[in-house]
Structures
1.
Amino acid sequence: MRTQVAIIGGGPSGLLLSQLLHSAGIESVVLERRSRDYVLSRIRAGVLETGLVDLMHEAGVGDRMEREGFVHDGTLLANGNEQFRIDFKALTGRHVMVYGQTEVTRDLYEARDAAGGTVIHECRGVKPHDLDTAAPFVTFLHDGKVNRLDCDFVAGCDGYHGPSRQEIPTAERTEYEKTYPFGWLGVLSETPPVADELIYANSERGFALCSMRNDSLSRYYIQCDLSDSPDDWTDDMFWDELKRRIPEEAADRLVTGPSIEKSIAPLRSFVCEPMRWGRLFLCGDAAHIVPPTGAKGLNTAASDVHYLFNALRHFYHDRDDEGLEKYSETALARIWKTERFSWWFSSLMHRYPDQSGFDLRMQQAELAFLRDNEAAQKAMAESYVGLPY
Ligand code: PHB
């Protein structure tokens, strides 16, 4: 098999890249380790920056999102029983779109199918070769046979555990990592959301987040111990704990119901430099992870896809390789700013096991400053709606 761009990973970033390349007349093949059903069963955040919304339209897959997604002009921050609002629209003139990552992925699969795109599922032992030459290729096991895919470029959209990043020689790769001493226990329930906007809550008992997918589907999270397992938490225990962490008026209004999904995710910040090695280009979680507090996981992957797509387009259409040469530098400049925002927002909203009295006062002062200072709110809002590409 031969294609122009071999894309490792059939999650949203690999599919979005493939669909954008198709719109520009550039061929690609997507190799995914899992089945389509498995990919679509993964529950991820659901807040899209304008940049990603625009990319979805550019890829021709924005219609359902426009119909079914929800525009959010602001978000609520709670501190104990107090609450204040960050008005994205007034502060930045922009908004975010609430639309689940699963729905984004579903729309992209449909578009790839409709365009006759090649997405090969259940590929095992995927391995890129000769990335430092002009003729790289990828081998993989599929249907019991070893296959070889020749290509011009390899896009590593294969997540944190994927094989792509490992191809950058360790001597040329630097990885930066921070782990947080807690996790998030998340529950999905077929209940109406407690508020029209998201509530990020800092409380004595730890962080909580009230989010949503639509009018009758809610997503809630509470900070938990890393040693907890979802089985330790009955639905009743979860709802009781959530109610204790959000302002009383919200707790009184909260509609509870059976959970349809319950899981724990650890929090981590991670960046790999560089994001390019020879003809390999990393996108998304393959190169960086953010803690979920700012909902930046999918959005950072989307900005990588934007830079890589445009670089490839200029290469194929204009024989201009400057974008490819500068890909790592350009993508990382934006990634680090989003890493900073996700780290800052996580630090502001969680309770840390080793937090001193002074640390706690600093957190409280920072929340009070944000509540009272428009410039601080504007800085927060600019990052939340998404820094420019
Ligand atoms: C979610 O809806 O799953 C969600 C929303 C906002 C976040 C993280 C997760 O910051």
2.
Amino acid sequence: MSEIKRLTKPVPPGGVIGIIGGGQLGRMLATAAARLGLKAAIYNDEHNAPAFQVTPLQFVAPYDERNMLTGFAEICDVITFEFENLPAESIAYLASLKPLHPGQRALEITQDRLTEKNFVLSLGLKTAPFAPVSSRDDVAIAFAKLNGPAILKTRRLGYDGKGQAKVTSADEASRAFEGFKSAPAILEGFVDFSFEASVVAARSPDGQFAAYDPPENIHEHHILRRSIVPGQLNKAQSDDAKAIAKKIADALDYVGVLAVELFVGKDGTVMVNEIAPRVHNSGHWTIEACACSQFEQHVRAVAGWPLGDPSRHADAVMENIIGAEADAWESLARSGALHLYGKREARPGRKMGHVTRLKPLTK
Ligand code: AMP
């Protein structure tokens, strides 16, 4: 394989940040890049991508199409992602052409739930109990080992609860495994958590680290409903969450923003659920409540600029607008800082926008 390209100096204003993926995260990254005088090029596998509405530099092709990847890389100074499930060959190819952040290793580890969980354990951090399953026999053994309700999760390509099934018996686990076409999976013990949280943080090429205050997250039907900051985390848990993010970012020699989804157990223990190697839905409140949003922070980090100040100047509640809820845009616009992602079709479960409401800073 050819050598990996590194950024030797910061991308100057006027430079181009290439973003793989054209969803709302790409759209908000492109907007943040524009504010810094940088341009964004978006690569997406479908035409009607929300991010295409905010930049003229558009590439539409499958994620493994070499010619298009080459043309995209040619106009970019640095390449990053809003969507991390690119085929490994495409990642390696892009990395041979232009600096790519986060890098190949971070993407490889986080694309596979089993590799990710083992990596987290190797850092001495806590996770839910789990066991790998790649056959029906494994499912029975794993279920017996976990000894209680569990969640079967495919190792790859799961998000917002897709590729996941809660199971309460070995038979049910077996049927779920077949339902996922026997794709390699993990069986994870069901955590009776006290609440969910996350930490969004950034690391620069020279190892500078900046973490946002960790929000408490409330999910409904496996989709994030609301992020609240400050939430239920006490000072020790909040510090713990930031330290977890730093440990992970340093171990991956990470560049850019990453998010770590967390479970806080009934005994107060902070456990890692999963790592997202990108900006994250639970960090959207930073647009209004911080001097430098997660989107600007990511652009700064991947472009080799100094990181911005992640401190929070207000309390915030961010609420997702899901499916037909977007029809109420007029009343939502009155209720807070409204973001709509420009999606035409309001399918059930689809994230159409979000609204952030600020309150004076309490802690
Ligand atoms: P994930 O895709 O792994 O982030 O899971 C989506 C959501 O499912 C989480 O935010 C939790 O609400 C729930 N969930 C996932 N894994 C577990 C678990 N082991 N125990 C309890 N709830 C879980």
